[in-house]
Design a protein that fits this description.
Strand content: 5-15%
Distance between the termini: 75 Å
Structural class: mainly alpha
Number of helices: 20
Radius of gyration: 32 Å
Number of strands: 13
Length: 517
RNA sequence: GCCCCUAUAGUCUAGCGGUCCAGGACGUCACCCUUUCAAGGUGAAGAUCGCGGGUUCGAAUCCCGCUGGGGGUACCA
C-alpha cells in the first residue's frame, strides 16, 4: 500500500496538438481520482511548447471533454490559480524556463550546443563510417568540454544554439514507480544522450518545461502515460541537477487498440471523446468504464458511481500492463446506465437526437414532449446508445410506405418511411395469405373502439384462434404493416400509442399493397 | 537493431506462497420468459495461469532465461 502522508497535488498536462481521445481522458481521470480520494488538488496545465503542431480549438476540446465525463480542476488556464499562468507558452514569455536553463548551464549540468540538425546528421554518418553500430549512436555535443571563452566566442558570432543536458558518460540512474510495484528501474547513462532542454527558439522542450512547472506548482505525484517511462531517467537527472525533491512517479498503462496492434490513435480509431456524447453515451457510464481500464476495486464490483470510485481509488491498484479498448463492454455498460434512468430523464436525453433527426421540433412542442413520455418506455430498455432513439422511434412520427424493393443505404429524410412489402409476408406465408391476415386484422380493429393495449391484445388473440393461426405470423404481419419493420417495440403498446386512425390506415395501405401480388 | 516496461480464457480483470484442478464481468452458445427485438432469469463452453528452468514440503503467486505484446529511440509531447 502506497503511504500518503502530506497533501497531494497532481496535474493533467495535455498538449493541444489535437482533440482529446479516450486514452487521454483516462490518464486525466486517474489523476483526478487520486486528487479527490486524498483531498488534494488537481491542476490542468496546457503544454503548448510545440510551435509546429499546435491545433486551433484543441484546448477548448480538451476542457469540454474533461468536463463532460465529470472531471473538474482546481487550478487551470481558464480559472487561474496561485501558480498562474497555466499555459506554457505564456510562462515561456515570462522567462521562467530560460532562467532555469541558464541556472543549469551555470552549474555545469547543461551546456550551450551549437550543433545544427544538419551537423547532427553528419555526426551520425561519421559514427557509422567509423564502423560503429548506428543504433548505438548517442548524441554528445563537443561543447560539453568547451571553456566558457569558447562558448562566449561562438555565441558572439551569432550562432544559434540549444541548451542541452550534460548527461554523465557512465554510471546509471534509477527510479521507482508505484504502479510497477515500487521496483527500481535502472538505466545506464551510456544509453542516454544529451537531450535538448531549450530549443534554438528559446522555447523549452517538454522535458524541461513540465519539470520546472511541476516543481513550481508543487506537484507531489506525477501520474502520466507509460510512454514517459523511458525518459524518466532524464527527469531524475534534472531533479538532481536542480537539487529538488523527487515527486512520486506513477506511469499508467496505455490503452491499446481493439486489435491490440499499438496504442489508441486519433486517426485510426473512433475514440475522440466528443464522438461519445454525439452518439449518446452517458458521462457516468464512460466514467465507470474508463476507471476500469487498468484499475479494479475488488475484481467483482464493476458498477460504481463516481463518488464510489473516488472513495475506493488507490493508485497501487492500477495495473502495470496495458488494457485493450473494448467498445462492446462500454456499450453494455452504457445500456445499464440508460436503464437506470427514469422515463423523464430518458426523454430529456433523447430530445436533442430526435430534433436533429427532424422527427420533432427544436425545441419540441408540449404535445411532442407529452407523446414522447408515452412512447419512450417502449424503447427505453432497448437503448444502448441514446443516438439509436431516432431509428427506433421514427415510425411514430412519420408514416410508413410499402414499396416493391427494399431501400438500400440511407433512408429518405422526409416523406413516408419506405419498407419492402415482402417483409409483410411472414415466413412460409404467401402474399395472398398475408393479405387475408391483414384484411382480417383490419376488420377486427375497425370495429374496435377501446384502444387500450389490453383490449387490442384480447381482440387480436381471439382473431388468431378464429383463423386457426399461430400468434407469430399474424402479429408479425401487423407489426410490419404498422411500423414498417420486422423488429419493433411490443405490438399492442405500439398500436395503442400510434392511435386508432393511423393504425387502421397503415393496415389498409399494407393490405392494398399485397392485393394483386 | 538498441533501451525500457509488461505477460491469468477472444477481451477487461480477481489473485500478493497452501483455503485456486483459478473467482467476477463483456462477448459467445443453450434453455426459460415471450408477438419480433431487447431486457430479465438459469446454465454451458472457454485459462495445461505464455514457454523452459530454478527456489520451496508446497508457486498463477518468488528468481533467472526465452518467447510474445507494448512503449521509447526528435530542437513532438
Amino acid at each position: 500500500m502506497l503511504e500518503i502522508t502530506g497533501p497531494v497535488r497532481v496535474r493533467f498536462a495535455p498538449s493541444p496538438t489535437g482533440y482529446l481521445h479516450i486514452g487521454g481522458v483516462r490518464t486525466a481521470l486517474f489523476n483526478w481520482l487520486f486528487a479527490r480520494h486524498y483531498g488534494g488538488q488537481f491542476i490542468l496545465r496546457l503544454e503548448d511548447t510545440d510551435e509546429k503542431r499546435f491545433v486551433q480549438g484543441a484546448a477548448d476540446d480538451i476542457s469540454a471533454s474533461l468536463r463532460w465525463v465529470g472531471i473538474d480542476w482546481d487550478e487551470g488556464p481558464d480559472i487561474g490559480g496561485p501558480h498562474a499562468p497555466y499555459v506554457q507558452s505564456e510562462r515561456k514569455e515570462l522567462g521562467i524556463y530560460q532562467r532555469y536553463a541558464d541556472q543549469l548551464v551555470a552549474s555545469g549540468h547543461a551546456y550551450k550546443c551549437f550543433v545544427t540538425p544538419a551537423d547532427e546528421e553528419a555526426l551520425r554518418a561519421a559514427w557509422a563510417a567509423r564502423g560503429e553500430r548506428p543504433e548505438r549512436f548517442r548524441f554528445r555535443g563537443v561543447e560539453r568540454d568547451w571553456t566558457p571563452e569558447q562558448t562566449a566566442e561562438a555565441e558572439a558570432a551569432g550562432k544559434p544554439f540549444t541548451i542541452r543536458l550534460k548527461v554523465p558518460l557512465d554510471g546509471n540512474t534509477s527510479f521507482s514507480d508505484v504502479i510497477r510495484g515500487g521496483d527500481q528501474i535502472m538505466v545506464n547513462h551510456a544509453d542516454l544522450y544529451d537531450m535538448v532542454l531549450l530549443k534554438t527558439s528559446g522555447m523549452p522542450t517538454y522535458h524541461l518545461a513540465h519539470l520546472v512547472d511541476d516543481h513550481l506548482m508543487q506537484v507531489t505525484h506525477v501520474i502520466r502515460g507509460e510512454e514517459w517511462v523511458p525518459s524518466a531517467p532524464y527527469h531524475i537527472l534534472l531533479y538532481q541537477a536542480f537539487g529538488w525533491d523527487l515527486p512520486t512517479f506513477a506511469h499508467v498503462p496505455n490503452i491499446l487498440r481493439q486489435d491490440g496492434k499499438g496504442k489508441l490513435s486519433k486517426r485510426k480509431d473512433d475514440v475522440l471523446t466528443n464522438r461519445f456524447w454525439e452518439r449518446g453515451y452517458l458521462p457516468d457510464a464512460m466514467f465507470n468504464y474508463l476507471a476500469l481500464q487498468g484499475w479494479s476495486y475488488d475484481g467483482s464490483t464493476e458498477l460504481m458511481t463516481p463518488a464510489e470510485i473516488v472513495a475506493r481509488f488507490t493508485i497501487d491498484r492500477v495495473q502495470a500492463s496495458p488494457a485493450r479498448w473494448n467498445p462492446e463492454k462500454l456499450l453494455d455498460m452504457n445500456g445499464i446506465y440508460i436503464r437506470k434512468l427514469s422515463t423523464a430523464q430518458v426523454v430529456a436525453q433523447i430530445v436533442p437526437f430526435l430534433s436533429r433527426a427532424g422527427l420533432i421540433g427544436d425545441p419540441p412542442s408540449a404535445a411532442e414532449l407529452a407523446y414522447l413520455h408515452q412512447i419512450t418506455p417502449l424503447v427505453h430498455e432497448r437503448l444502448e446508445e441514446l443516438g439509436q432513439a431516432p431509428a427506433m422511434l421514427d415510425f411514430f412520427f412519420r408514416d410508413v410506405q410499402p414499396v416493391a424493393e427494399a431501400v438500400a443505404g440511407e433512408l429518405p429524410t422526409s416523406g413516408p418511411l419506405p419498407y419492402a412489402k415482402a417483409t409483410l409476408m411472414p415466413k412460409k406465408f404467401t402474399a395472398a395469405q398475408a393479405h387475408a391476415m391483414l384484411r382480417s386484422a383490419h376488420g377486427v380493429l375497425n370495429r374496435q373502439q377501446d384502444w387500450a393495449p389490453e383490449a387490442l391484445e384480447a381482440e387480436l388473440r381471439a382473431l388468431v384462434e378464429r383463423l386457426e393461426l399461430k400468434v407469430g405470423p399474424l402479429f408479425s404481419a401487423i407489426r410490419v404493416a404498422v411500423t414498417g419493420r420486422t423488429v419493433a417495440p411490443p405490438l399492442f403498446d405500439t398500436l395503442s400509442a400510434l392511435g386508432r386512425e393511423r393504425s387502421l390506415a397503415r393496415l389498409a395501405v399494407a393490405a392494398a399493397a399485397l392485393e394483386n401480388s
